[in-house]
Known about the structure:
Blueprint: H1 2-29, E1 43-49, H2 56-64, E2 73-80, H3 86-92, E3 99-105, H4 111-121, E4 126-130, E5 135-136, H5 140-145, E6 153-163, H6 168-190, E7 200-204, H7 218-228, E8 232-244, H8 249-269, H9 280-308, H10 313-334, H11 340-363
Parallel strand pairs: 1-2, 1-4, 2-3, 6-8
Antiparallel strand pairs: 4-7, 5-8, 6-7
Amino acid sequence: MIYLFWISSLTIFYTYFVYPLTIYLISSFYKKPIHGKYIYPTVSIIMSVHNEEKNIENKLRNLLELDYPQARMEILIGSDGSTDSTNQVLGRHQDSEIQIRVHTEQNRQGKPSMLNKLVSMAKHEVLVFTDARQKLDKIAIKELVKAFADPKIGSVSAELHLEGEDGQAARGVGLYWNYEKMIRKAESRIGSMLGATGALYAVRKELFPHLPKNLILDDIYIPMHAVQKGFRAIFDKKAKIYDRFSRTAKEEFSRKTRTLAGNFQLFFYFKWLFNPLASIIGWQFISHKFLRLLVPFLLVAAFLSSWHLRSQGFYSGVFILQCIFYIFALLGMFFKHKNKLFDIAYMFCVLNAAAVVGMLRFLLNRQNVLWERMEE
Length: 376
């Protein structure tokens, strides 16, 4: 039991504290440069939508107001089996000054299939992927694509800024997201980050892989394919996109469950990442992605082993501290007023529970590739 306690506890500590601190310190002393002068590459903005009548008008207006040469940009939108007024809204915008092309499917195929179709229609050298709800900063595209002046840059991710209500989920997720962005920025500085921000990212068209129909996370699969080909996937904090926080823990749980099920799926597509000796990206992958998915089981192991060893003073104290932490999490579930300790504990448990559910959905093949948006 002593060995179980220390192995589980130290692995958790390494995953959440040692690795982030190590990657941050490395990136503080070593930053891989980006070469080349600013260019305006030709850009194909690609967006797959389904029943987005509440968001599509504002999104199109946002895209049409971007500060980027219109002659070097096209917008391709795929409506995947929409049954609301999305198609009618899209039809009204096809005569805009910027070239907008719309492809519609009567029967829903899923985002991967739609992206494959839209990319086959794209004419330009850089593909920019975005979603319907989020708002791009006016210069987001200009900032996003400038790094492609360096021929070794294969993918660039924007920085997502979460805004909105100061609710329970928002406070907990906000702290987690700032922590996550710190790690992504550090990984990018020393080489490549693991994936991209799905709301806005870009890739060279020549590096776009044909997406499997059942793929859940295109925003990791596409950039990691570029990395596998020897290119960098980087983070650009000047390319900004804005979204709202999850309104409830239930909504965040649903999103994270899907994301984490997708992470399990990706393990089978990128087996080469499990070799930390092959490249630094393998070490990053194991530390940042793989071990995170083991944490829920390590937490259980640490709790049970410390309970078994509670007759010894040190382990008794550790067991009590764990109990206090989980009590804070329970209080966070019901406590409606702002309390940082309760919020952190609660969202930490929600996210780790999502990892377990995500694994079960993947193993049982219950995670549908079709994204079901929660009511806004």
